[in-house]
Specification:
Layout lengths: L5 H15 L3 H20 L7 E5 L3 H13 L6 E5 L8 H12 L3 E4 L6 H10 L2 E5 L13 H11 L3 E4 L21 E5 L11 H4 L2 E5 L5 H4 L6 E3 L2 H7 L14 E5 L8 H11 L4 E7 L2 H8 L4 E5 L9 H7 L5 E4 L7 H11 L6 E3 L2 H6 L5 H4 L4 E3 L3 H8 L3 H4 L3 H11 L2 E4 L4 E5 L2 E5 L11 H13 L5 H17 L10 H16 L1
Parallel strand pairs: 1-2, 1-4, 2-3, 4-5, 5-6, 6-7, 8-17, 9-10, 9-12, 10-11, 12-13, 13-14, 14-15
Antiparallel strand pairs: 15-16, 16-17
Helix pairs in contact: 2-3, 3-4, 5-6, 9-20, 10-19, 10-21, 12-13, 19-20, 20-21
């Protein structure tokens, strides 16, 4: 499913009107009705429910007036509050306010017909509060009286439905503009927006429903919209096919270059993850004594070890020899980042022509000379968490977390695929940007990123390009974590490996 920014949504609305004669009033009418239908679908019989509809002076408020009018088809217990200046309503919003009044709707203005104290009592008594205060166009800190109303909603409401997005959340980033509504359900129109998938906005939306309001499908699926949510159907099409008449060579060879005496586990997690997604042959180049630990954990790993605490520049010739017939390469997990390792890393990647996944200490080595990326001849996937991405760019973590536009700029500049890990993982490629929504808090552990790295490489080795392999791996990685039973406590990192097959099975079925 595609995702649009506020400006892209405004452009779609303009095209609807200017090219296809679909007026804003028609879209507003269908938007309001879709909210009521979503409420009925979620709550069941609403004929005895009481509703408080809070409307701002923008078009979001106009949607709210339609919601209130349509709710009156179900129940008499509907009160509408206008928070703002009626004189500033758009033509469509003003017309819908007039229609609401014409059928006898109870409409009151905050500050004129009731005080904030009286509003608080109405919020307490309502079964459902509909938040139609602010829409996609809002910028800057939320001010009174809206901020005071949002406080009351969050303090006293029983169940909140936000129209398009929770008021106070910035559309394009998901950031909270000082204060924002915490909704139980959000009904958005046409297409989801970045705020619906990026935290903290994603958490404030509650249950998200995307309503069709008459925007032509070819506009919603336009190739000009380059951002989208990763879906199970998308991943199913990507998954490598398994055939009975096959052998280990049918599913590719991965070479993992990872580990040090400081970090023993990362190389093993990465290697087993590549095998779990189906690669046929896994070679691990590491440092002693990891080879003993690796084959104890999984005897199918073919290990070669150097007898140093960490990789040295002279070890590069061993790596390059192993890489000659590789289908995919991993470099970085647990490798450390000192001058010896940096020189080793440079020598390997600059002579590499195979698809490579660079993670962890590989990224830290890379941060010392990003221009290396221009000299890599094969396709590259970078898998940073926000801290690593911040180091790559020389910025603060707060500047890069969930910053898909910054990710897109990096991808464009260096011609790589970048996977920015997080509660919503962002995969950006030359073809577009993809948001992954699978996962759980069990992934908030050391080593789960190493598993993702191995999964990407294992899928690439089976003949899938790095973009699709990254999309597939991040979805399966999150889905595997969701398969862990909370009754058993918090998942161990190693247990995630055993859940990968069940995630694959779910997607295949």
């Amino acid at each position: 499913m595609k995702i649009v920014t506020a400006e892209e949504m405004r452009r779609i609305d303009r095209i609807c009107y200017e090219q296809f004669g679909i007026p804003p009033s028609m879209l507003m009418e269908r938007a309001g009705l879709s909210v009521v239908l979503a409420i009925e679908q979620d709550l069941g019989d609403i004929t005895n429910s009481s509703f408080l509809v809070l409307c701002g002076q923008g078009n979001n408020g106009g949607d709210g007036f339609v919601v209130a009018r349509d709710l009156l088809e179900y129940t008499d217990y509907v009160v509408t509050i206008l928070v703002g200046d009626e004189r500033k309503l758009s033509e469509e919003s003003s017309a819908n306010l007039a229609r609401l009044r014409a059928i006898g709707g109870d409409v009151r203005r905050l500050g004129t017909d009731l005080t904030t104290g009286e509003l608080a009592e109405l919020i307490k008594s309502a079964d459902v509060v509909v938040d139609a205060l602010l829409g996609v166009g809002i910028k800057g800190e939320i001010r009174d009286p809206i901020s005071e109303v949002i406080k009351l909603i969050n303090l006293y409401s029983k169940y909140v439905v936000s129209v398009d997005l929770p008021s106070g959340v910035e559309t394009d980033t998901g950031a909270v503009l000082g204060i924002a509504v915490k909704a139980d359900m959000t009904v958005t129109f046409g297409l989801p927006k970045p705020c619906h998938v990026l935290y903290p906005g994603r958490e404030l939306c509650g249950k998200l429903k995307v309503a069709s309001i008459g925007i032509p499908r070819f506009l919603r699926e336009s190739k000009q919209i380059t951002r989208q949510i990763i879906t199970k159907q998308m991943v199913k099409k990507i998954l490598p096919k398994r055939i009975r008449n096959s052998h280990k060579g049918s599913y590719g060879k991965v070479v993992v270059i990872a580990g040090s005496r400081t970090y023993l586990g990362a190389a093993i997690l990465t290697s087993i993850a590549a095998l779990r997604v189906g690669c046929g042959y896994l070679q691990l180049l590491t440092c002693s004594p990891i080879e003993t630990l690796a084959i104890t954990k999984e005897p199918g790993i073919v290990v070669r070890a150097v007898d140093h605490e960490h990789f040295m520049e002279q070890d590069a010739h061993i790596a390059l020899q192993m890489l000659q017939d590789a289908d995919a390469v991993v470099i970085g997990p647990g490798m450390t980042c000192n001058s010896d390792t940096v020189n080793f890393f440079k020598k390997v990647v600059l002579n590499l022509s195979k698809p490579v996944v660079i993670d962890a200490d590989g990224l830290n080595c890379l941060a010392q000379d990003l221009e290396i990326l221009h000299e890599i001849s094969g396709s590259a996937v970078l898998t940073p968490h926000p801290g690593e991405f911040a180091r790559l760019l020389g910025k603060n973590i707060s500047e890069v977390r969930y910053n898909y536009k910054l990710v897109e700029e990096f991808v464009s500049k260096y011609n790589v695929t970048l996977v920015l890990k997080g509660a919503t993982t962002i995969v950006s490629t030359s073809d577009g940007t993809f948001f992954n929504l699978t996962g759980s808090t069990s992934l908030s552990k050391a080593g789960t990123g190493d598993i993702l790295t191995g999964m990407i490489a294992g899928i690439v080795a089976q003949g899938i390009d790095v973009k699709d392999a990254s999309i597939c791996a991040v979805y399966l990685h999150g889905l595997a974590a969701e398969h862990y039973s909370s009754k058993e406590g918090t998942m161990l990192t190693s247990e995630l490996l055993d859940l990968i097959p069940s995630a694959i099975k779910e997607v295949e079925s």
